[in-house]
Write a sequence for this structure.
């Protein structure tokens, strides 16, 4: 009998740790609800348009402002009704979710990447680099975010790429400051001193000993920030600064439906509900994740 | 092999210069075990960290002296060369085995790192080395332990792992900073035994830093007694215990609780007062404010180390007079 190679053994041990986190997550009802809901939203945005093959841009001027199917005058041809140009609301919400989720995740990735890199350098090396990065962060914090985004979009033009870039770069500060704080406490730990005394170079210490130990707050923060970014994206879309038409987005659906709110409630209520459920599910998941990743809270019966 | 001469490690603090290590000289030969004892905050650890070059500067300030290791002055060595020396020629173990291992990696992973950094071994060879080292430090079932995380090990086991990491490259010098302080007494004895055995096998010289005179008596050949960054007395271990010359040394020895003392009649002996602040030291002998035998000269003139008996140096005006 040969022992399994180290790689597999480490993998198994790592999986066991993740399994514990997942199990802890499963014990919190909020996290389960949030997780399931969020999973459904992602699955719907990815796969439902394959089944429900209606063109989100197709106009049907004869069926303008049709109500949802359960209301008088509604039909199953457009289950959630149509807008002022006779476009199907359901499929537009689904396509809108793709935009929101993509912008949300991509911006968080951009922000995380920049924030983690700058935060690690700032916290670990300290000194002049630290001062420089933190003052830059102060500048970003002092500058009104909406103003920044609007001016950048106005200069660069609105495209989904620009949107992600702007949202991501305006949000790196939170990550950088969180990471910096964790790094400051981790780098004083004895195992870092021990690694130094074993002749490990700074780069290896930073990547192997410091970075993995500051990851869990970032995971939680990133999750919650996805929700924030989605709100910002909707807000910008509402103001006409978001992803350019004709691509349907939740924010613009709200803006366009606003005019008809008195007699066609579904045009604003349903996209609004989509935003709310998405944000809610992400926040529930984030809260659960925070508790699950904190070993001190893990074993508290609730 | 290791020769520290007049080492002065100061720290710049808002309240002034803290003289953590103030003119310490020590000599160690290959394979020697030397003890450094003293109360908390007397500069023992700072001295060890100075040898490894692990103090951030600023705030640390090397005001003078030299640390020669195998003929090279460590204080003027390029950082990259010093880094290559650490863990390979000189290594260190720390007081707190609970926090000295990275919680997110397996023991084997961290132990292999030393081999990969200094010996350039590949993964499987490094892991083989890790298993061998674990077996050498008496970790049972090393094949299995190598894949475990630090939280799965007891304190004694972790200290064994730390020792395995420190000795992986067969260093010439091991700095042991309170290696047994956080362990319970029976584990302490095992760890000391282990260090002695490994010293015999690998020929590693050990600088043992501790505040526990019992530990010193058990395994060291020579002892230096430190107080406020200075060496007060230095002698062969037996000589020191038989003829302690410095009042501070005698105070330390008197404050060891005795097993045959009774709770009712014998109070615990202590050295009255506290260690003076390193930013505001007395002008004469640093121990003078707490010394039961102080005379006028002690207040004004700091005593120098003098060899009063063969191999026995002491810095005290009273002892000097005989």
């Amino acid at each position: 009998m040969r022992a399994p190679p180290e790689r597999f053994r480490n993998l198994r041990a790592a999986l066991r740790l993740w399994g514990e986190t997942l199990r802890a997550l499963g014990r919190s009802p909020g996290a389960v609800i949030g997780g399931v809901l969020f999973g459904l939203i992602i699955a719907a945005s990815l796969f439902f348009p394959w089944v429900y093959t209606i063109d989100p841009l197709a106009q049907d001027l004869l069926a303008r402002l049709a109500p949802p199917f359960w209301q008088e005058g509604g039909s199953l041809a457009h289950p959630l009704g149509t807008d002022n140009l006779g476009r199907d609301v359901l499929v537009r919400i689904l396509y809108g979710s793709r935009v929101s989720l993509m912008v949300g995740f991509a911006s968080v990735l951009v922000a995380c990447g920049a924030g983690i890199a700058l935060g690690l350098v700032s916290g670990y090396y300290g000194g002049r680099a630290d001062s420089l990065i933190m003052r830059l962060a102060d500048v970003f914090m002092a500058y009104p975010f909406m103003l920044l985004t609007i001016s950048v979009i106005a200069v660069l033009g609105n495209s989904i790429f620009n949107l992600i870039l702007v949202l991501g770069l305006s949000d790196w500060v939170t990550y950088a400051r969180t990471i910096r704080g964790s790094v400051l406490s981790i780098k004083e730990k004895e195992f870092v001193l021990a690694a130094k005394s074993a002749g490990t170079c700074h780069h290896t210490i930073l990547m192997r000993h410091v970075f993995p130990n500051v990851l869990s707050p970032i995971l939680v923060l990133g999750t919650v920030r996805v929700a924030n970014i989605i709100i910002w994206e909707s807000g910008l879309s509402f103001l006409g600064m978001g992803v350019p038409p004709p691509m349907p987005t939740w924010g613009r659906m709200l803006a366009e439906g606003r005019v008809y709110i008195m007699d066609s409630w579904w045009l604003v209520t349903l996209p609004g509900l989509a935003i709310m459920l998405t944000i809610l599910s992400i926040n529930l998941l984030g809260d659960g994740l925070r508790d699950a990743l904190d070993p001190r809270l893990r074993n508290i019966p609730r | 092999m290791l020769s520290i001469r007049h080492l002065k490690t100061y720290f710049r603090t808002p309240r002034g210069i803290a003289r953590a290590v103030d003119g310490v000289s020590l000599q160690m030969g290959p394979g020697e075990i030397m003890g450094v004892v003293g109360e908390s905050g007397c500069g023992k650890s700072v001295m060890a960290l100075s040898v490894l070059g692990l103090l951030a500067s600023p705030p640390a300030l090397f005001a003078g002296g030299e640390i020669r290791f195998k003929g090279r002055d460590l204080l003027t060595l390029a950082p990259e060369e010093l880094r290559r020396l650490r863990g390979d020629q000189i290594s260190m173990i720390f007081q707190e085995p609970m926090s000295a291992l990275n919680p997110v990696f397996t023991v084997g992973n961290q132990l292999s790192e030393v081999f990969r950094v200094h010996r350039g071994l590949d993964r499987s060879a490094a892991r083989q080395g890790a298993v061998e080292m674990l077996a050498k430090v008496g970790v049972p079932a090393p094949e299995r332990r190598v894949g475990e995380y630090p939280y799965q090990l007891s304190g004694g086991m972790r200290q064994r792992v730390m020792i395995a990491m420190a000795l992986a490259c067969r260093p010439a010098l091991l700095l042991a900073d309170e290696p047994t302080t956080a362990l319970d007494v029976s584990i302490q004895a095992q760890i000391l035994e282990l260090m002695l055995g490994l010293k015999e096998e690998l020929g590693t010289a050990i600088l043992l830093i501790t505040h526990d005179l019992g530990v010193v008596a058990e395994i060291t050949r020579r002892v230096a007694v430190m107080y406020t960054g200075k060496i007060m007395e230095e002698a062969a271990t037996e000589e020191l215990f038989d003829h302690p010359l410095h009042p501070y040394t005698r105070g330390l020895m008197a404050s060891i609780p005795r097993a045959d003392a009774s709770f009712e009649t014998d109070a615990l002996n202590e050295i009255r007062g506290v260690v003076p602040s390193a930013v505001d030291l007395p002008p004469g002998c640093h121990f003078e404010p707490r010394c039961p035998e102080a005379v006028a000269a002690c207040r004004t003139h700091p005593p120098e180390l003098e060899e009063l008996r063969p191999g026995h140096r002491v810095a005290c005006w009273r002892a000097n007079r005989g």
About this structure: Residues 185-202 of chain B form the longest helix (18 residues). The mean pLDDT of chain B is 84. The interface with chain A takes residues 52, 54, 83-88, 91-92, 94-96, 99-106, 108-109, 113-114, 117-118, 123-124, 127, 143, 146-149, 162, 165-166 of chain B (CB under 8 Å). Residues 3 and 27 of chain B are 5 Å apart (CA to CA).
